């Protein structure tokens, strides 16, 4: 049986249609390029993600950082120890609760993140070179919608 996608009035097979495969391949290639770019600055892809998340949110707990950086709490804890030893992040006890430790970027961490960001702009430009500005905007919106759809999906 073929199902109709009401948005595009396109026929979809019952099985996977290849979009998940293409997204997976894109993820694989993009991760490789990100790793290559940030490695030249002595940073891993996971560390770059954590630095970006901390920069965006200002400060957060280790558990929040783990969730938003897509790593386990144990991995985040080890990663934070390394980043702290390199002077990229600092820990501070929350004033409202002594057991909660907040993490935040140091000036060195922000400077390193800026270097990595500049390198990754080139990766994004290459990835999006075939799309117009309008198409990039639509793609961004669609990707956010897909993430929302999967976050609401219960298996």
Descriptive report:
- It holds the Pfam family MarR_2.
- InterPro entries: HTH_MarR-typ, MarR/SlyA-like, WH-like_DNA-bd_sf, WH_DNA-bd_sf.
- This is MarR family transcriptional regulator.
- Residues 16-148 form the HTH marR-type domain.
- The chain is mostly helical.
- It has a single domain (17-129), classed as Orthogonal Bundle (Arc Repressor Mutant, subunit A), CATH 1.10.10.10.
- It is 63% helix and 12% strand.
- It contains six helices and five strands; from the N terminus they run ββααβααββαα.
- It has helices at 19-39, 45-57, 62-69, 73-85, 107-128, 133-152; strands spanning 3-5, 10-12, 60-61, 89-93, 101-105.
- Strand 4 (89-93) and strand 5 form a beta hairpin.
- Helix 1 crosses helix 5, helix 2 crosses helix 5 (107-128) and helix 3 crosses helix 4.
- It is globular, with a radius of gyration of 19 Å.
- The two termini are 22 Å apart.
- The mean pLDDT is 88.
Quick summary:
This protein is mainly α and 155 residues long.
Order of secondary-structure elements: EEHHEHHEEHH
CATH topology value: Arc Repressor Mutant, subunit A
Structural class: mainly alpha
Task: Name the helicity range.
Answer: 55-70%
Largest sheet: 3 strands, antiparallel
Runs in which pLDDT lies below 50 for 5 or more consecutive residues are none
Q: What is the terminal separation in angstroms?
A: 22 Å
What is the domain total for the residues?
1
Rg over CA atoms: 19 Å
The gross shape turns out to be globular
CATH superfamily: Winged helix-like DNA-binding domain superfamily/Winged helix DNA-binding domain
């Amino acid at each position: 049986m073929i199902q109709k996608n009401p948005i595009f009035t396109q026929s979809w097979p019952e099985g996977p249609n290849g979009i998940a495969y293409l997204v997976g391949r894109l993820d694989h290639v993009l991760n490789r390029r990100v790793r290559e770019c940030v490695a030249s600055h002595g940073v891993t892809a996971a560390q770059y993600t954590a630095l970006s998340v901390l920069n965006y949110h200002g400060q957060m707990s280790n558990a929040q950082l783990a969730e938003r950086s897509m790593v386990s709490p144990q991995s985040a804890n080890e990663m934070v120890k390394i980043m702290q030893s390199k002077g990229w992040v600092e820990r501070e006890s929350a004033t409202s609760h002594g057991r909660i430790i907040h993490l935040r970027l140091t000036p060195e961490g922000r400077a390193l993140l800026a270097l990595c960001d500049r390198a990754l702009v080139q990766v994004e430009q290459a990835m999006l070179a075939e799309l117009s500005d309008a198409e990039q905007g639509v793609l961004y919106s669609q990707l956010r919608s897909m993430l929302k759809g999967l976050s609401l999906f219960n298996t």
